[in-house]
Amino acid sequence: MLKALMNFLSLCWKPFGVDIVGGSSGGDNDGGGGRDGRDGLLWYRDLGKCATGEFSMAVVQANQVLEDQSQIECGPFGTFVGVYDGHGGPEAARFVCDHLFRHLQAKSAETDGVVTAETIKRAFRATEDGFLDVVSELWSTKPQIATVGSCCLVGVISQHTLFVANLGDSRAVLGRKNARTGGVDAVQLTSEHNANEEAVRRELRDLHPDDPQIVMLKHGVWRVKGIIQVSRSIGDVYMKHAQYNREPINAKFRLSEPIHMPILTAIPSIVSHHLQPNDSFLIFASDGLWEHMSNETAVDIVHSHPHAGSAKRLVKAALHEAARKREMRFSDLQKIDKKVRRHFHDDISVIVLFFNHDLIRRGAAEHHSVGYFWRFTYKGNRTAVYCSLI
């Protein structure tokens, strides 16, 4: 018991609730210390430990208010990873970051702590219902909350099984060792719920056969009802409930015909994967990364460098590419302030999770000997670390 407690305490590199905005706040010890801090509009954690191995985490801001949120939670069940890409404002992404994992804990407790695809779906449903309650409460004072939404990318590793749940166009890519080539292959685990994908347009047309304008091509981009690109999200209740698609929300969100059934959905697509010894790492990222980088390039960058700083390295590679596309120097891009920066790239959130298969095999017995709740999240313009026993 004492050994397990000491192992737990070694994970808490910061006291409970400490913000780490500004400056580097650690050494370069890749063994679990790493560095965390801020570089302009970039916040990062170079390396940390979790129940299934190590992780690296980074986010760069482009909008006036950071709309991305991300988190890692570890406990007796294993590891939970979440990347939430907000749009229309930060409120939905922040709400998901605060509530989705808690709902998963509650739903899993009803099945003796066993995580399944159904418990994940129920957690998403509860989170959607909770945000709808917020919209209802604020409708008279802050009606534009009805037009705020968030894509959600979640990974849950429980025992030897990886579940990946997705709403929207964030992406999870697995780095898998190739014994024949000695390299690492990129395996995309998610599909984007974006109207630019033919499969998504076909799905929407099948669901709404009487609506010839369910998807519209505007300025070379396919959009649902000519307004939004993603077809699944938490929030965006103006596209789901008729009572919120009316004045006083902005006219650009109001439809000319009544909503008889939800146009967008909060039902995630879920894949499960039994972890194999050649599964090396996972990259979870909002679409801001994939706009500038292929799966293969991202996996090669992670594979070709030390674990420490992997997420920050991916973000900087994307920023270099964004600068190149605009025929400018990276150093000049770094000088551009938030909000204006959005014309060059989106908010970008990245979490890289490295698998320690020995730790995963031992995990169940060890984690039952001492439980813990552990959290590392980006909240608005601050980075917070939480760590406590449960």
UniProtKB/TrEMBL annotation:
Signal sequence, renumbered to the chain: 1-17
Record field: transmembrane: none
Gene3D superfamilies attached to this UniProt entry: PPM-type phosphatase domain
Organism domain of life: Eukaryota
Reaction(s) catalysed (UniProt annotation): O-phospho-L-threonyl-[protein] + H2O = L-threonyl-[protein] + phosphate; O-phospho-L-seryl-[protein] + H2O = L-seryl-[protein] + phosphate
Cofactor entry: Mg(2+); Mn(2+)
Top-level EC class: hydrolase
The keyword Disulfide bond belongs to this UniProt entry's keyword annotation: no
InterPro entries the UniProt entry points to: PP2C (IPR015655), PP2C_BS (IPR000222), PPM-type-like_dom_sf (IPR036457), PPM-type_phosphatase-like_dom (IPR001932)
Residue ranges occupied by any PPM-type phosphatase domain in the UniProt entry: 51-355
GO MF term list: metal ion binding; protein serine/threonine phosphatase activity
Pfam families: PP2C (PF00481)
Enzyme Commission number(s) of this protein: 3.1.3.16
Keywords of this entry: Hydrolase, Magnesium, Manganese, Metal-binding, Protein phosphatase, Signal
Entry's family note: Belongs to the PP2C family.
Protein's UniProt name: protein-serine/threonine phosphatase
Protein source organism: Chenopodium quinoa
